[in-house]
Design goal:
With 177 residues, the protein is α+β, with helices and mostly antiparallel strands. The protein has four helices and ten strands. The chain folds into two domains: 93 residues, TATA-Binding Protein (2-Layer Sandwich), CATH 3.30.310; 71 residues, 2-Layer Sandwich (TATA-Binding Protein), CATH 3.30.310.10.
């Protein structure tokens, strides 16, 4: 079966296991730091769509990558920037994916009313939001379904989870929708 989706965003956490002087880091370009409003520093790159939230503890949250490779490449750039302010990361860091957001198209119209009445774990209130929310049982994965056949998947931590969740989704709507 061909891929029915593409990854739009990956949220990942990384621990550098070293303290980071945010006041020094904020002097670099492409940073935002307002500790009265939020304890982390926002670090953006102009040439790539990856953004980091950097905390003084050495913990990072990364958003905007579409693959683990995107995040790894951005980490290399961030580490170069940290070296400019004298921060040396000695320990091996690891990317932990927290959430993957993917969008796709089932290439068919969906009767959201019919799906809402016949598939468990759905929420549909078209006056409030045009999409149907479908939460997979025993999973953190949630889908947004639209009448056009477009879908958004969130909550997965890896690609095989998305693949199997889409199979469950298609099976559920083929039986009932």
């Amino acid at each position: 079966m061909p891929k029915l989706y593409k990854v739009e965003n990956i949220v990942a956490s990384i621990s550098l296991k070293t303290l980071i002087p945010l006041k020094k880091l904020k002097k670099l370009p492409n940073t935002q730091y307002n500790p009265e409003q939020f304890p982390g520093l926002v670090f953006r790159f102009k040439d790539i769509h990856v953004t980091f939230l950097v905390f003084g503890s050495g913990k990072l949250v990364c958003t905007g990558g579409r693959s683990k490779e995107d995040i790894t490449n951005a980490m290399g750039k961030l580490l170069k920037e940290l070296r400019k302010i004298g921060v040396r990361v000695k320990s091996k860091w690891k990317i932990e994916i927290q959430n993957i957001v993917a969008s796709g198209n089932l290439n068919r119209q969906l009767d959201l009313n019919k799906i809402a009445y016949s598939v468990d774990e759905t929420e549909y209130n078209p006056e409030q939001f045009p999409g149907l929310v479908y939460k997979l049982v025993n999973s953190k994965i949630t889908f947004l379904l639209f009448g056009t056949g477009k879908i958004v998947c969130t909550g997965a931590k890896n690609i095989p989870e998305i693949d199997s969740a889409i199979k469950v989704l298609i099976s559920a709507i083929n039986k009932k929708g």
